[in-house]
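Let's sit down with a protein and look at its sequence and fold side by side. Go ahead whenever you are ready, and we will take it from there.
>
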Amino acid sequence: MLLARHQDPIVAIATAPGRGAVGIVRASGRDLSPLVQALCKRPLVAREATYLAFLDAHGEAIDRGIAIWFPAPHSYTGEDVLELQAHGGAVVLQLLLARCLQAGAHIGLRVAEPGEFTQRAFLNDKLDLAQAEAVADLIDASTEAAARSASRSLAGAFSTEINVLRDRLIELRTLVEATLDFPEEEIDFLERASARERLAAIAAALDAVLDRARQGSLLREGIKVVIAGLPNVGKSSLLNALAGAELAIVTPIAGTTRDKVSQTIQIEGVPLHVTDTAGLRADPSAADEVERIGIGRAWDEIAEADAVLLVHDLTRIGDADYAAEEAQIEARLGGAKDRLVHVFNKADLRPEAHLPGEAIALSARTGEGLQALRTRLLALVGWHAQPEGVFIARTRHVHALERTRSHVAVARDGLDQPAPALELLAEELRLAHEALGEITGQFSADDLLGEIFGRFCIGK
């Protein structure tokens, strides 16, 4: 939809809804001089702020503010761009938007779709696709580390790494294709082109970029952590301790939490989406109807979690009934074994208790052991990089890099055969090249672009 209409001039309010000191109406198109004349009644100097009145169709001032004119191609979108900075009242901005549409009706001016300004920057080679996505990621960043990483991606740090890998793949593809096209030359490709060494170097560089992309994806997506356990073991107290606020109601009454309570916190800049759930029961029929619904939702949350904190009550160790019920719960959690962290709460009341394996003892009341838990959570999801060296990345970037690595691995295996098939090598390198190109938009389907830019806010 967006691609089919990308020739139309567009306009939108580019600031968030509501009252504010300043609001911006932004227009972009191939020739916006009629719009400038209609609203400003005077030519504007390129990239120079001009204070003037914004005029309606009768020549009356709608507001007074600053107009800035960015002639193509030296603008955000690569087209002519006009920015009108007015007072930030909702009515004023709507009047300005309506006036722009009225004045630009004869040139086909329309309201922009979500993300259309940034999409035009991509289509006009002002940004590649990874940089365009970083614009939205910078806006949506929930931690300082995520914002700084998104800024690095917007500046081209991630794209530069991808482009270096792409160039090395292209160079190797060229050598392979040349060997296929001119077999009469009898070039000993494997020796003279150092194909094995080149592929090994590409694979090593690819692994390094993939590792950093995974860290960047964690910064963007965060970690979904679910706190689970039997009733009254301290799950809500643990949520409050991690968040540093009284978010969940805490009482000695079993079954107090009947629905999920969620909060986003951060550890070393990585967002943690923590959810406290209703207490699990080995026999849900023992609970009332509302609690049973809460228990069902708890199991749904556990199924989708990146990490599950199974909370145990140290003061009830040795209670046979408690142990039997916990054993049944743990048996059902068997499928989440790789995501499971055993947390023994109330360590301040049983400091001498001996814990199994890698279990963590803590006290939600005093805070003892919380730092060890934070460290374990980051290690569980593979976080290890320093945020200052990470660029923001999305799940689709990680998947594209993993597919690239898979094709490179197949190509390396083929080269190790006694009689390597250069046709198959060429095909694997082509597929690796295309998978890599999906990240920056070199190989991207129109529906993918529509999905990406459709998630942007209007005016960006």
User: Anything to note?
Assistant: The first strand starts at residue 10 and ends at 13. The domain at 228-369 is CATH 3.40.50.300 (Rossmann fold). The mean pLDDT is 86.
